[in-house]
Amino acid sequence: MRNFARVVRLSLRYRWTFFLSLVCALGVGVFWGANIGAVYPFVEIVFQGESLQRWGQRKLSAAQEAAARYTAEVETLQKALAQASEAERRHLEAQRSLAESRLAAEQRAELMYRALQPYLARLPDSPFQTLVLVIGVVLLGILIKCLFQFWHGVLVGRLAALGEFELRKLFYRRTLRLETAAFTNEDTTDLMSRFTYDMESLTGGLNVLFGKVVREPLKAAACLAGAAWVCWPLLVLTLLVAPVAAWAIHWLGRMLKRANRRAMEGMAELYNILEETFRGIQVVKAFTMERYERLRFHRRSKQYYRKSLKITRYDSMTHPITEILGIFMISLALIAGAYLTLEGKTHLLGIRMSDRPLSVGALMLFYAFLIGTADPARKLSDVFSRLQRAAAAADRIYALLDREPKLQEPACPVVLRRHQRDLVFDHVWFHYREDRTVLEDICLEIPFGQRLAIVGPNGAGKTTLLNLVLRFADPVRGQIRVDGIPLPQLRLRELRRQIGLVTQEPWLFDDTVYNNIRYGAPWASREDVIRAAQQAHAHRFIMEELPDGYETPVGLGGSRLSGGQRQRITLARAILRNPAILLLDEPTSQVDPESERLIRTVLEEFTRNRTTLMVTHRLSTLALADRIVVMEGGRIVDVGTHEQLFARCGPYRRLYQLEFAPLRESA
Predict the structure, then answer these.
(1) Distance between CA atoms of residues 176 and 492, nearest Å
(2) Whole-angstrom Cα distance, residue 301 to residue 644?
(3) Cα(556)–Cα(259) distance, rounded to whole angstroms?
(4) Residue ranges of the chain with per-residue pLDDT less than 50
(5) Which of 137, 171, 187, 344 has the highest Cβ tally under 10 A?
(6) Cα distance between residue 424 and residue 443, in whole Å
């Protein structure tokens, strides 16, 4: 529950909301107990056909008579003690002690009833009017309790929502700090599960904690206080079963938390299948794999069903256990209380239970208070499963919140002015897994303003090279330096502000064209955005082909635009950023020939006076390069111009003949 306590502390920042919810919960508890206390006047007064005045007078007379009787008994025992033998004295002293305690109790009762007389005299003297008065007081108490309960529910809902709000922001902020390797398809679906299902479970737990877990114990405490006021030794005897109940609930709690954690992991797996299937629906249908996907989903759903069933079994045990233990408590109270009342006793098994014999009305009130604790106990057993689910959700959420990013900001960062000298790879090695090297001893010096093309077969490490420039990851050995400064010595924000990226699969956000272009430079004016779109040859189709021009929503991922249109908008975004370093990861590989021609024209102009790294399989893009790097198996095979490489580099010649030459002929 440690992580769940951390979520609670987030909610407790809103102190006034929490304080007011406590006040309302206390009001509910007090009036819950007070309303149950109305049992006494009904049993002792109304059902006896008396008014409150007559009842007070009767109780005062009974206390006076009992006090006189016990006074006489004490005097008699005192005289007997003076004449008793040594053997009889111990028994007589015990009787005198009992009589003196009973006398003291009756004298206290006499004082209490005498003090009540002036107040009772103002009340109606008719039994029926007394009935109406008692019912009116009960109804007023119920009304006030309901008002407290309403505002408690509102304040608890606000407190839980604010706690969720704070946690969502914190979770999102920490998630954005993670390295890009944490956002693979599998990890993303797990993140979505934590953002949705786990967060919902956590909010439910907060509602329960600040709601029933606070309110119901206060109701139970009011009833227990009332029962203790009637006869606290009898209450202690009744609660002897409580430690057994506490142990059973603790055991159930551990089982429920474990089962809930496994169910949440199963839900994350279901999210993963759904995400894979829906994103790859064309492949599924094209290869007629619907049946296979149904079976895969069926198996995972069956696993989740079994995990959920285990939760249900443990949850279903809560009611019977609490009910059985509650019945034991009530039965014990019934037997002991009935003995004390019906036999007129004050002691049970030699232990004094009360100063005066319990009346039927007092015993009924005691039982009513015990029954009043049953409703809060029942409701608390209902929330047990939700609290354990919330605790399991908190563990999963904080497991990610506490995860430190692999890429740390420097303690004393070096200030980087706009890039103007060189970009250097100095004996760079990199791997994602230790058993598989992705880049091996990369040595490369790129002067400012040079356009460098990177070619090679799939898996050669080309894209990884660009990712290291962006510092999406750090080399395991070697250094990458910008203008002589190693990348880890720079703030990530300052480094990436100087870099523009255009990828093979252009990603646009579900927003307007204008906001997607401006995403690269939020400070830019509308004139700057339009100018960047014109440079990217996007302005014309935006104004002529899109219904609302720059205010046209592009859909999720730019789904309402063609591939060429999306790519030109991402180019406009990069142009607006005005980067000193431009990274192009096959920007024309998925566009039509007309779009490719326009993009090449844009790049030819825009890459001047910028350090440009281009991963490409296109001859048109390759023609822009000042130098070409040939990679194979994570290593640099050769570096040079097209003519130099074609003459001396066999891998480049083969690659050119296999990929570039066919593209030229098809063009």
Answers:
(1) 13
(2) 59
(3) 36
(4) 186, 663-667
(5) 171
(6) 8
